[in-house]
Amino acid sequence: MIDIEKYLLSVEKPVQYMGNEVNSIHKKDFKVNMCLFFPDIYEVGMSNLGIRILYDILNKVDGFSLERGFSPLEDMEAVMRENNIPMFSLESRTPLKEFDVVGFSLSYEMSYTNVLNALDLAGIPLKAEDRGEEYPLIMAGGTCTVNPIPMKRFVDYFVIGDGEDVMAEIARIFIANTDKTKPEKLELIKDVNGVYIPTIHRDKKIKKAVVQNLDNTEFYANQIVPFVKIVHDRVSVEIQRGCTRGCRFCQAGYTYRPVRERTLEKNLALISKSLKATGYNEVSLSSLSSSDYSEIGDLITNLEKKHGKNNLNIGLPSLRMNPFSVEVAEKIQSGKKTGFTFAPEAGTQRMRDIINKGVTEEDILETAISAVKAGWTNLKFYFMIGLPFETDEDLKGIKNSCLVEMKE
Ligand code: SF4
How far apart are CA 164 and CA 168, in angstroms? Predict the structure, then answer.
C-alpha cells in the first residue's frame, strides 16, 4: 500500500485520494484484480454512471476484485512526481502497475491525454508493444471506443458497446486462466461480444455488445457515497438506455441504440434499494431523453407516494422539447422554479432539419409558453455553432429565435 497520508494536507481536496467511502468495496480474497481508471478528476469520474454500474456488478463476480482510480489534480501530480509515487488505486492504494488489468473509461476524446499521463505516472510504458508480461493488460471501454483507432497503439483490448455483461464474462475467463500469458489471455477473449483486440482483429469490423434486456442486468444499488461533493451528488438510476431520436451530431444517440426500457417495477425497486443503501434523498432518473420513458408519469407518482413528495428530490437530466416535458418537470418541481433549460441546438428550421433535431419553431414556442405559464421565469437555451453547412443566417437565427420566444 502506498503511503500518501503525509502529503494529503498539502494538496487541494485531499479526500479525493483517500477512498474508504460508504459502500466502497475492499476485497482481500481474489484471483484477478483490475483497476478501473476514469481519466479525469474524482468529482467528475465518480459522477459517471458507467463507473457506478461496473464497480458494483464486477465486484459481484467471485474471485474478481475491481478498484477505482482517478486522475490527480495538478498539485497532487506534482507531489507524486517529486516523491516518485506511482499512480495508485483508491481502495488498496496499490500501484496501477501491480494490477492484472487496468481499464480506462473513455467518455470523451479530451481525456485521451489523461490516459497517457496516468500510464506515465504509473510507470507503465505507453505503447502496447513495449509492455511485457510484467505489466498489466490495458483495456478501454466507454462511448468513445466506437472508434478505437486513435487509442489502438496504447490499448491491449477494447470493449465496444454495453460493458456490464461482457466485462463480467471476461473477468470469469481471466479467473479460470490465471496461468496463461497476456497474448494467450487475449486469444481467449477475442470472440467475446464487442471485444476488439488491435493485434488480432486489425481492420476487422466488430459488432458492439448490446444488453438486450435491462431488467436482466444485475442491480447496482450500492452506489458509493463520496465524502466530497461531486458533480452529480445523488443516486443515479438509468431508467432506460438509448434514445428514439436520431440527431445527426449525437454520438450517444447512435452508440446506445436501440432503446431499451427498464420496467416500472424494476426501476422502482432499484431506486428504493439505492436510496436505502446510500442515504441520499435525491435521485436522478437518468437516460438520454427521460421524458420519453413510457411510464415516466407513473414512475414519478409511485416514487412520491412511496417516499413522500417532500422527502425526495427527483431530477430529470434530459427532457424532450414539448409541453409534456414541462408537465413532467412541474410534477417533480418542489419549491422555487429557478430555470428551465431547452436545447433547440440550431437557430433556423433549415439547420435543425439538417441535424435532424425534430424540433419545429412551434415546438419551441409552445414549450417556452407552457414553461412560463407554469411559473418558470428564466428560460435557458442551448445552441451549437460550427455545424457543417451552417451559414450566417443560421447564426443570426439563434439570436432571432430567442427574441421571438421572449416577446411571446
Ligand atoms: S434527443 Fe438528445 S440524446 Fe437523443 S439523439 Fe438527440 S441529442 Fe442525442
Answer: 6
